[in-house]
Amino acid sequence: MTTLLREHAEQQFAEELDALAKSDDRHRPPNWKLSPWAVATYLLGGKLNNSFVIAPKYIGNRRLMEIAISTLATDRALLLLGVPGTAKSWVSEHLAAAITGDSTMLIQGTAGTSEEAIRYGWNYASLLAKGPSHEALVASPMMRAMQAGKLARVEELTRIPADVQDTLITVLSEKTMPIPELNDEVQAVKGFNVIATANNRDRGVNELSSALKRRFNTVILPVPETAEEEVEIVQTRVASLGRALELPAEAPAIEEIRRVVTIFRELRDGKTADGKTKLKSPSGTLSPAEAISVMNSGLALAAHFGDGVLRANDIASGLVGAVVKDPVQDRVVWLEYLETVVKERDGWKDLYRACREVV
């Protein structure tokens, strides 16, 4: 039996989705697998009447998720906006999994994304042999979502060239996709909608036109408000990824996660947690996603080149790699932080020595 490296959300959490569907007796919009209330429970966690526990997928402001879900129940598309690492793609995937049971209608935005990726393409062998026909047409994920009444996901919308972005305007406003070569069109089935993600720290992005912005309801996903909230997010995701990757290492002690989160929050905020010392901030975003990456890298080192217990020297290289994106400016910021904060903090001497060895 083939073991998948990464299961889709609807595969990984099939048991939870099934339990929610069986206990969900509230109104469901057309073609939705769950009611908006059940979708929120799936995302934010909770306990069903039969004591079945739903694990939280998003840890943060409940109201933001309620706004996102209710938007998808209307005819307006949803834009999840925020700095890198604020779980935009994660939320997008789980919303699609819970609402339509299919998170695979995905268009990955890049500088090379063409109109065909959003509209449709052609099987050129068939096109040359028979000319334009429905058999020669290759449907995009957007077209397939429209035909099936499902959610289409557009990742990194602002990475897509502006003229290609505007291909979405007709789809979002008229709920139709013209096929002029066949003098035909595809009209969206009830349940169809679009979830797009974009980050507001990316360099060289293509700004959305005002016409396209008006067709989205924008929900801004913030970085976690408190250190405890961020620690919980990192701990949950690290445990999940550790199981998926089958790392033969002990789960990291909460204090190691807390140290990484504290470093990232202080450098991100430009001051120490007690507010007494001002700090320079590096060029990177230092998001929870970066902290998760540092912890997983450390676990792999501890598992394969240590005794399975995560220690300071296991996370030091990941920390340096996360902070020092610019080898000149960021290195100065990191060295200053090591000498003025890490070196002087009680119980952090091991981390200071480990970081100095690899910087």
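Second entry:
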Amino acid sequence: MSEEQIRAAHVAGEPRVHDAPIYLAEYDPAWPDLFRREEERIRAALGDRVLLIEHVGSTSVPGLAAKPVIDICLVVADTSDEGAYVPALEAAGYTLWIREPEWFEHRLFKGPDTNLNLHVYSRGCGEIERYLLFRDRLRTNEEERELYLRTKRQLAAQTWKYVQNYADAKTAVVEQIIARARASAAGSPR
């Protein structure tokens, strides 16, 4: 994303300038517990408006080093209908941080007391499948997990103005892993 795109998507004040390498923590077995705590809080806030909630990203992959930020994928009926879920999440302490109507109507919240990225998508969004394919491939394929970890460590050592720039730099390897996960799911020997 360009700086202009990052600024346009940011809802809560100015985007945080990082201007440093990315810190990767070794895997912490407490990460799944942090996810479960947030899942309970989100379900309590939204009830049956939660269509799906999943722990995604590197903290969801046992043994994988990661930025110590819990990534959560939340699916609601329609993310553009913010009145249906934003007030309830805000009442539970979450802060709407990013709004990207041009990118799958994605919304991102920060947590009240846990370092997290709560990604919210509408039912049927293709990004949901991509998150799950990627996570599950890394959980079950040691070679892919090692490839991704090497890539992350190489990129994390660089200085990044925004953390989003680091995330964007991983796109090529992420796309390759997702393609192989899809091929594997389809029965191709790829």
